[in-house]
Amino acid sequence: MNITKNNATTAGRPTPQPYGEQKLGQLLLDAGKLTPADAELVLRLQKREGLRFGDAAIQLGLVSQIDIQLALSQQFDYPYLSVGEGGFSPELVAAYEPFSPQVEQVRSLRSQLMLRWFTFGHKTLSVVGAQPGDGTSNLVANLAIVFSQLGERTLLIDADLREPRQHELFNLGNRAGLSDILIGRAEPSVAIRVPAFVGLSVLTAGTIPPNPAELLSRFGFAGLLSTYSEHFDVILIDTSPSANSDAIAVCAAAGSALITARQDYTKINELASLSKKLSETGIAVVGTVLNHF
After folding, report:
1. Strands (E) located in the chain
2. Half-sphere exposure of 108 (CA within 13 A, CB side)
3. pTM > 0.70
4. Strand pairing of 154-158 and 284-291?
5. Contacts of 97 (CB under 8 A, 6+ apart)
6. Which of 27, 30, 73, 233 lies 20 to 30 Å from 132 when distance is taken between CA atoms?
7. Is 131 exposed, middle or buried (0-12, 13-18, 19+ CB in 10 A)?
8. Which residue ranges of the chain lie beneath pLDDT 70?
9. What's the burial of 92, exposed, middle or buried (CB within 10 Å: 0-12/13-18/19+)?
């Protein structure tokens, strides 16, 4: 059904404009990308040549393609940011470069995980690398963003209690987090809602403990995941490399693992060893990702 709204006049009579086009123009006005006088010029060219509002604005040199994409992301509830906005790490390419080939691969991974794991009622997935430097933290952060862009209520947990990175990537500061909850010094509500992304929350690692393996092996961690599963659709867990004993404890609590390997970096024998160790522990290995981050 076509809905029209009056926002231009011809010979004293209103000329209907498609609702979507009018809203795009309003978003560009609200963002300061167009002035009311600019919008009039765009509307005249749009009517004269039968162009879309955004195409007409670009043709007049008033806005860039990036300006249009940012406005469309708001119009279609698909949030992403202009470079530098929000103070997040540039490594969050899903936030700053959502149409790049790299992010398209992350969205493809999201689709595979939805089909192979989350559609079967599962909500929790740990992501673990065979060795340090596999890019696990980077991958899981971008994966969390694209899940939130899909409209899923997404929680990203930093369970790397040795060298946590999610607080840095999302510019959150490593306040009270997972470790503090596990020792009873904080409540699950310390998970931080990230307003820039619809439905995305992050639970940072919190205080770095002297005994991460023992802390994460406690029943309290599995119980915490159960509590969060009542409020989130997707829970992704950033895990320390499998060389650390706590990595298996995290994967066991989650009941599942996605293995990451870095191209031209990860050793095949370490990858095979990790897969075998997870399977022997009864952890569902959802798949292996060749990471380009």
Report:
1. 4-10, 13-18, 124-129, 154-158, 192-193, 200-203, 234-238, 256-262, 284-291
2. 10
3. yes
4. unpaired
5. 103
6. 233
7. middle
8. 1-22, 66, 69-84, 293
9. buried
Class (C level, CATH) for 85-291? alpha beta
Q: Which of 284, 200, 195, 259 is nearest to 235 (CA)?
A: 200
Residue 260, C-beta contacts closer than 8 angstroms, at least 6 positions apart: 127, 128, 129, 130, 134, 135, 136, 139, 288, 289, 291
Encoded tokens for 202: 């992050």
The 10s digit of each residue's pLDDT in 23-57 is 777 777 877 888 888 888 888 888 888 888 888 88
3-state secondary structure of 217: helix
CATH 3.40.50.300 residue ranges for the chain? 85-291
| 16 three-class SS | strand
Which residue type, as a one-letter code, is found at position 3? I
Kindly state the tokens that stand for 34.
């167009």
Burial class (CB in 10 A: 0-12, 13-18, 19+), 246: buried
Percent of residues, the chain, with pLDDT higher than 90: 51
